[in-house]
Specification:
This protein is an alpha/beta fold and about 500 residues long. The chain has helices at about 15-30, 45-50, 60-65, 80-95, 190-200, 225-230, 235-260, 260-275, 280-285, 305-310, 395-415, 440-445, 465-475, 485-499; strands at about 1-15, 35-40, 100-105, 105-115, 120-125, 130-140, 165, 180-185, 205-210, 215-220, 295-300, 315, 320-325, 325-330, 335, 340-345, 355-360, 360-365, 370, 375, 385, 420, 430-435, 450-455, 480-485. Helix 1 (about 15-30) links the parallel strand 1 and strand 2. Keywords: FAD, Flavoprotein, Monooxygenase, NADP, Oxidoreductase.
């Protein structure tokens, strides 16, 4: 059943880390504008409410994963999932954003009308009703992966396994691994989090990886940040620490790209130091790719290395041939007994939460669309989306996206224009993949993502410093962004058709 249409100035899709941040920026800049956050689930928090596996935590420090406008005050910089969720909820509640969230509203379609300068957004509720909203600006903060399922490859014999198979994205509340043999399949951030967390209660945990990942131990507490807080006060100390850590991320990334052998040798030395003498570091912690071709995995206080050193967990680098009734058979001939198998095998990427876009009756082919500054689509008016950095904390980029959208909206208000749309007039512009990142979950989905261009402003920025300059202070009138109104837009279309 379709109910009446509700009009709002802005619709934000998603009430996770990005959506709550976007709502804060909107509310701060435009206290009088009406808005709503359409959230498909029954809780805010996005990733930090969805994932419930043991030990779930950030793999970025909270001084950069936290919001620019709200200091992170906990002593631990590498925080656990519940602490991050509390931070998001507190941000929403203190700003009154929680009152604007419509839970159980899954956005399935959005159509733009140039004549009306409005989006019509359709959302399906959990009861199957279809609700419609119109808005002047649509901001998609739904992340870039499917919430209803993760990625799990087909494992022959999985149906024969007598124990429990679980994906971290769908962790059962009643799963008890105490005293059991656990096999964790994967080598990414989730796997290296699960192994030490489960080793505390399991009989033994074995991490099976097809190929190694770069893993670096960092202190869970930022001693400099905690000291600065006592000297400068929370807000100023947070700003200084945020820039300190952002710059450290940039330096590490740039050094990895320019001098990969140097970084590789350094990481190898640190790993050897963290493990017992004779540990086969070159087999299990020496990837074939260069540092930051994929994201570095952070282990707070070296927890993964500690459980490996104590023998509570082990790591196997091999290929799985099949599951059987009692565990996992490997290509080398080794059999791993298991009561519980965890498939920490990654995400299944999805654009705009699966919603379809239409502009003046024409479907938008997202996989062929060109991105503007990594946050808008060419020829799609009054629409922006949030995709964070792959080489730094997500929220560093999410904050900048929200700030840029606010700048665009302020310019529209000041000039009396109702439409903002990026337009590419350069036929020589070459198309590139949106994300230059070798991680498997990205490579599997590149054909579904929009595309980037070979030149600015059509590139996906991955440098926080450059983006601060371009998005926070750069000119809006850059030759690609067009500000107009419905009459002018119709005239332009008519002139094009006549020509």
């Amino acid at each position: 059943m379709v109910e009446h249409v509700e009009h709002l100035d802005v619709v934000i899709v998603g009430a996770g880390l990005s959506g709550i941040g976007a709502a804060w920026h909107l509310r701060d800049a435009f206290p009088g504008k009406s808005y709503a956050l359409l959230e498909s689930r029954q809780a805010m928090g996005g990733t930090w409410d969805l994932f419930r596996y043991p030990g779930v935590r950030s793999d970025s420090d909270m001084h950069t994963l936290g919001y620019r406008f709200r200091p992170w005050l906990d002593a631990k910089a590498i925080a656990d999932g519940p602490s991050i969720l509390s931070y998001i909820r507190a941000t929403a509640e203190e700003a009154g954003i929680d009152k604007h969230i419509r839970y159980g509203h899954k956005v399935t379609a959005a159509s733009w009308s140039t004549e009306d300068a409005l989006w019509t957004v359709e959302a399906v509720t959990e009861t199957g009703d279809v609700k419609r909203f119109t808005c002047g600006f649509l901001l998609c903060c739904s992340g870039y992966y499917r919430y209803d399922r993760g990625f799990t490859p087909e494992f022959p014999g999985a149906e024969d396994f007598a124990g429990t198979i679980v994906h971290p994205q769908k962790w059962p509340e009643d799963l008890d691994h105490t005293g059991k043999n656990v096999v964790v399949i994967g080598s990414g951030a989730t796997a290296v989090t699960l192994v030490p967390a489960m080793a505390a209660d399991a009989a033994h945990v074995t991490m099976v990886q097809r190929s190694p990942t770069y893993i670096v131990a960092l202190p869970s507490k930022d001693a400099i940040a905690n000291r600065l807080r006592s000297v400068l006060g929370p807000r100023r100390a947070y700003g200084v620490t945020r820039w300190k850590n952002a710059l450290m991320q940039i330096v590490t990334y740039q050094l990895s790209r320019r001098r990969p052998d140097v970084v590789r040798r350094l990481l190898r030395k640190l790993t050897i130091k963290a493990l017992p003498p004779g540990f086969d570091v070159d087999t299990h912690f020496n990837p074939v790719y260069n540092p930051w071709d994929q994201r570095l995995c952070v282990v707070p206080d070296g927890d993964l290395f500690r459980v490996l050193a104590r023998g509570e967990a082990s790591i196997v680098t091999d290929k799985i041939t099949r599951f059987d009734a009692t565990g996992v058979q490997l290509e080398s001939g080794t059999h791993l007994d298991a009561d519980v198998i965890v498939t920490a095998t990654g995400l299944d990427l999805q654009v705009f939460g699966g919603a379809t876009l239409t502009v003046d009756g024409e479907p938008v082919e997202v996989s062929k669309a060109l991105t503007y500054k990594g946050m808008m689509l060419a020829d799609v008016p009054n629409f922006a989306f949030t995709i964070g950095y792959t080489n730094a904390s997500w929220t560093l980029k999410a904050d900048l996206v929200s700030e840029f959208v606010v700048r665009v909206m302020k310019h529209m208000t000041a000039t009396g224009k109702r439409i903002a749309v990026p337009v590419n007039d350069d036929p020589t512009l070459e198309r590139r993949p949106l994300l230059d990142f070798a991680a498997g979950y990205v490579q599997r989905a590149l054909h579904r993502l929009p595309q980037a261009g070979s030149r600015k402003p059509w590139q996906m920025g991955m440098s926080y410093v450059h983006d601060v300059v371009a998005l926070r202070h750069g000119p809006l009138d850059d030759g690609a962004m067009r500000f107009t109104d419905p009459v002018a837009a119709r005239s332009s279309v008519g002139a094009t058709e006549a020509g």
